[in-house]
Amino acid sequence: MKKEKIKHSILIIMAVALIGIGYLNYDYEPTLEVASMGNITNEASLGDVQLVSANSVKEGIVPNEPENVEPTNSKSDEYFSATRIERDTMYSQMLETYQKMVDSTEISNEQKAIAIQEINKITTLKNAIMIAENLIKNKNFEDVVILVSNDNASVIVKSSNLNPDQVAQIQNIVCRELKLESNHITISQK
Fold first, then answer.
1. Roughly what angle, to the nearest 10 degrees, separates helices 164-178 and 109-137?
2. What is the pLDDT confidence band of residue 132, given thresholds at 50, 70 and 90?
3. How far is CA 128 from the centre of its chain?
4. Which residue blocks in the chain are alpha helix, DSSP H?
5. 3-state class of 78 per DSSP?
6. Are 35 and 61 in contact (CB under 8 A)?
7. What are the angstrom distances between the C-alpha of 53 and each of 59, 91, 104, 133, 159?
8. Which of 3, 49, 68, 105 makes a 20 to 30 Å CA pair with 83?
9. How many Cβ atoms are within 10 Å of 6's Cβ, its own excluded?
10. CA 187 → CA 14, 83, 93, 166, distances in Å?
C-alpha cells in the first residue's frame, strides 16, 4: 500500500515536471525560423525563438536574420527571468518531495537510497546548468536559460543572430558541463 503511494507520488511529480517543461517551451507570439539539414523554412510556433540545429554548424548553414527584431525589450527579459524561476521552482519541489521520502520513517532503506540518488542527480544537474549558463554569458551573451528533459537540453540565448562559431561555443559548453551528446542539444535564440 505504501509502495503504491510512493509510486503514485513519483508519477505525479514526473507528470508535473513534464507539464512544466512543456509550458516553459511555449510562448505566445508565433514566429519561428528553423535551420536544419540543408534547408531553411519559416514556421509558426514557439514565439520569436529561432532554432539552430547542431547540424547547421557542421554544414555551414546560417539561418536568415529575423525581421523587425527589437534589440532589447522587457518582454524578452521577463521571459528569461520567468523561465529560470519556473525551472528552479520545479527542481526545488522535486528535491523537497525526495527529501520528505528520505525523512519518512515509513519508507524502507532501499527506497530512501533511491530518493538520495535522485536528490544527488537533481543537485548535480542544477549545478551543471548554472555553470553552463554562466560560461555562456561569459561569451558576451546578455542572457541564457537552459532547460533539460531526459537526456536532451534546450538552450535559449538572448541574441538577435547567432553565427556558427557562437553556436559551436555554446554547444561545446553544454556538452562538457551537462555531459550530453551534441545531437541532444537544441540551441535557439530569442
1. 150
2. very high
3. 12
4. 2-24, 54-59, 74-103, 109-137, 164-178
5. helix
6. yes
7. 10, 27, 45, 19, 16
8. 68
9. 17
10. 24, 16, 27, 10
How many domains does the chain divide into? 1
At residue 75 the predicted structure's pLDDT band, cuts being 50, 70 and 90, is: confident
CATH of the domain at 124: 1.10.287.4300
| Closest-CA residue to 81 (of 145, 171, 3) | 145
Rounded to an integer, what distance in angstroms lies between the CA atom of residue 135 and that of residue 144? Answer: 10
The predicted structure's pLDDT at residue 13? 72
Q: Is residue 41 helix, strand or coil? A: strand
Residue 186's CB is within 10 A of a number of other CB atoms, namely 17
The domain of 67 spans: 2-189
pLDDT in tens, 134-186: 999 999 999 999 999 988 999 999 988 899 999 999 999 999 999 999 999 99
Q: What is the pTM of this model?
A: 0.62
